Amino acid sequence: MKLADLDVIVTAPPAPGWGGRYWIIPKVTTDTGIVGYGECYASSVGPEAMTAVIKDVFERHMAGQNPEDIELMFRRVYSAGFTQRPDLTVIGAWSGLEIACWDILGKNRDRPVHALIGGRMNDRIRAYTYLYPRPSHPLPAFWASPDMAAEVAVDMVEKGYTAVKFDPAGPYTIRGGHMPSMHDISLSVAFCKAIREAVGDRADLLFGTHGQFSTAGAIRMGQALEPYSPLWYEEPIPPDNVAEMAKVAAAVRIPVATGERLTTKAEFAEILRQGAATILQPALGRAGGIWETKKIAALAEVHNAQMAPHLYAGPVEWAANVQLAASIPNILMAETIETPFHHDLIKGSITVEDGYIPVPTAPGLGIDFDEDLARAHPYEGDGLHLQMQEEPISYSEVNSFAGGAPVKME
Question: Residue 28 falls within a domain, yes or no?
Fold first, then answer.
């Protein structure tokens, strides 16, 4: 069996659009006719350019190869062009293609992927969700309202979720780490207070920042949130300075989590080595795929750290996350996004039930991918999957983050 053909599907989730402006789905077919799907979570270039990278990686390093040869193909990609170092875009392309290879291997053997990478350790995976607005909540007011966030938190707890994530500390800028405004700190404290009072001890609070703060600013913010005992403080400073993140981890009594913008075991190993985080959040469509992230999980296990796969993408990456999570002992939880499009794109083949994800038993990734539906929603915009603002934050007005990259409502 050899890898024979590649098609790249770019689909745009309709409103409300949670999960980004578009999802990049490589479709790989073998010479025996088996089809595998993957997902690339690589967004530093637009989808047209990314499609070209995916095709180049496939044709240069994978076409004609047995899909079993994951390690060999990874080394070709990782070392390409005399590099032998993490490359966010190239490894992002590889990640989606690698996930598709595992989908093929599972289908060829009539076994789920987790059975091929160590077997089933967990029958179900604890899920967490971001706090997205109710249809009745006004936008953009929702993003700066502790009371509305608390209402949604109660909704999610009543659905069975035991952990909810929110990030009220303002927009994300291109300007590296900044000092949060006093209003941002006060609003973040108000969010934690309102949500904690609303859900009590029925759910963990997950506080996100997406790498916004300077080291000193992250420490100020984190220490202000300590009374509400969040389970994690997510990416408190930009991901490019591990030593400074370690200073935050040492100064704040909240576990630090990071990883959605990192790739390969090389970058995650440094996080663990320097004690910068105890919860790792790889996005499998960026971190190197399923096998590379299995290695990352093993490194985390040695350091007594846990895994919480990130998801701000489509359901194919989610399926890969679930297969990995089923096979490792140190899974903490996995992010979920419940929209009709996520559900319909895989025909409801993976679900959240009472706050947990039952691990699928179907072959491959365990999903039934609706290719026609994906192609019926092409991406026609010119923005990146996620974008950061160029203007600095304000120290005199409210700073607000609009929940990722939602599609405009008609």
Answer: no
Q: How far is CA 144 from CA 66, 187, 191, 222, 277, in A?
A: 51, 8, 9, 19, 28
Residue 202 lies in a domain: yes
Please report the DSSP string for 16-51 in residue order.
Answer: T-TT-S-EEEEEEEETT--EEE--B---SS-HHHHH
Predicted pLDDT at 281:
98
Q: Which pair of tokens denotes residue 38?
A: 């993957």
> Can you tell me the mean pLDDT for 200-227?
97
Tell me the CATH number at 258: 3.20.20.120
Can you tell me which residue has the tokens 């595998």?
Answer: 36
Element of type H or E holding 289: helix 289-302
pLDDT of residue 407: 54
The proportion of the chain whose per-residue pLDDT surpasses 70, expressed as a percent, equals 98
Mean of the per-residue pLDDT values of the chain: 95
Neighbours of 402 (CB within 10 A): 11
Q: Is residue 184 part of a domain?
A: yes
Please, are residues 18 and 407 in contact by the beta-carbon 8 Å criterion? no
pLDDT at 410: 44
| Strand, coil or helix: 55 | helix
Q: Which domain range does residue 205 map to?
A: 115-364
